[in-house]
Each structure stands twice: as C-alpha cells, then as structure tokens.
Design brief:
The chain has 101 residues and is mostly beta strands. The protein has one domain (12-96): Jelly Rolls (Sandwich). Helices cover 4% and strands 48% of the residues. It has one helix at residues 28-31; strands at 12-17, 41-55, 62-66, 70-73, 79-96. Strands 1, 2, 3, 4 and 5 form a five-stranded antiparallel β-sheet that branches. The termini are far apart. The model has no long low-confidence stretch (mean pLDDT 95). InterPro entries: RmlC-like_jellyroll, TehB/YeaR-like_dom.
C-alpha cells in the first residue's frame, strides 16, 4: 500500500485551510520533517508551479504535483514539502465527519 494515496477516503470533512504558500512565505516548519495529528488528513492543492512531497525515512516515497493537482497526506506520516518550480499551494485539513445521533 502506498503511503501517498491518490485521494482521501470517504467520510472525511474539511475543517481548516492554510493560507496560500509561495517560495517567499513557505514556513520552515513545512520544509522540515513534520506530521499531522492522529486522525487528521491533509490535501495539498497546487495552484501554480510544482511541489515535491517527500516522506521521511524509513519511508522513501515521494511525489511531484503540478498546478491543478493535489497530494493526499496520511495522518501521522512524517513528511516535508519543497517547491520544484516557484508557485503557490495551500493545504486543507480533514477529519472524520461528525455523525448525528
């Protein structure tokens, strides 16, 4: 199973969105190893340019996304991002949808 899935699983809802990031304002924290919390998925949206998403060892997967593409981010997987070509992206955060009893 890939640790970089093509899409988010069903049953999630968005609850937070970052501002747009560019090479000029990309936080150092996103350029170094970090992860989401348990149960939190991310969806990185590339608006312009290209971004590379890399998993931290012992994982070796990486993927490049171009404008119009997204990258799904699994909960608790240590990773970092870098621009391949200058551009702009943002990240949405998802968690399990609230159920009504």
């Amino acid at each position: 199973m890939s640790l970089i899935p093509n899409q988010l699983p069903a049953g999630l809802e968005v609850y937070k969105r970052t501002p747009d990031f560019t090479p000029e304002n990309l936080p150092a924290a996103l350029q170094s190893q970090h992860s989401t919390k348990a149960g939190v998925w991310g969806l990185l949206h590339v608006l312009e340019g290209q971004v590379i998403y890399r998993l931290a060892p012992p994982n070796t997967e990486s993927t490049i996304a171009s404008a119009g593409e997204t990258i799904a981010i699994l909960p608790e997987i240590v990773h970092w991002v870098e621009f391949v070509t200058p551009g702009r992206f943002y990240v949405e955060f998802y968690r399990a949808a609230a159920t009504v009893s």
